[in-house]
User: Fold this.
Amino acid sequence: MTAFLLCPYPDRVEILSDGAAYKPDGTLIGASYKVTTSDVVPLAIVGSGTISETSLLAIMILAAAEATGSVDDTISLLAHSLNAVRPRSIGGTGLRMAIGAISETRGPVCFVFSTFSDPASGVPAFTLQDMPRAFAQGAAPTGEDLAAYGPVSIGNGLEKDAAFLFGSMRCQKMINPAAPDREPFHSVGAHVDLTVIRADGYEKRRLLTWPDVIGEKINPKPPEDPGIPFDDGSTFDDGTGWE
Assistant:
């Protein structure tokens, strides 16, 4: 499942997202920028689930934005139409979509909906949930991580603690909330992107990139570089080479 964190601020909405795409067993198959933005209104979408299905739902939401030319009307239409977007093609993985936008009447707003029931998040299936504070999908930092890192505050923005928060998610094997019986695996990878939505446009920046390899499973703690081997390819007895 895509790791993301979104939060409304007085003049903007910020979204952090990772970039990994992977097979059901956790094998990395690609990387991408996962936030979709509207060209008509200040509205951005990040989805979690199969790529084809999250893309389809994002297209539908953007089509509503283009047709209405209004964030408020788009959100209202979506809230009343979720039962109609319960396609038979949605499988057992489940989808979760998060929206950050600048409402014409309310200013910065965030919404989340899922195609599955998830008691842990408190978001009912096929219900558009207003999120007046931050909402995250991904593992929370462990107590040990927090003790080593120090205080975390997102009150002024997400960038300062992005590497720590997503690094902590990355190091924990994730359980798909829509399929909790499946084997957990490391699913946060590739890179972390920051998207900022303002009334007059978007800011998009890549904050960090991890050395994940397509075709391999995400490894949050890869073995240390053994150094440069001798000319014949051999190393010292402990497996190291030249620095």
About this structure: The two ends are 38 Å apart (CA to CA). The chain is about 20% helix and 30% strand.
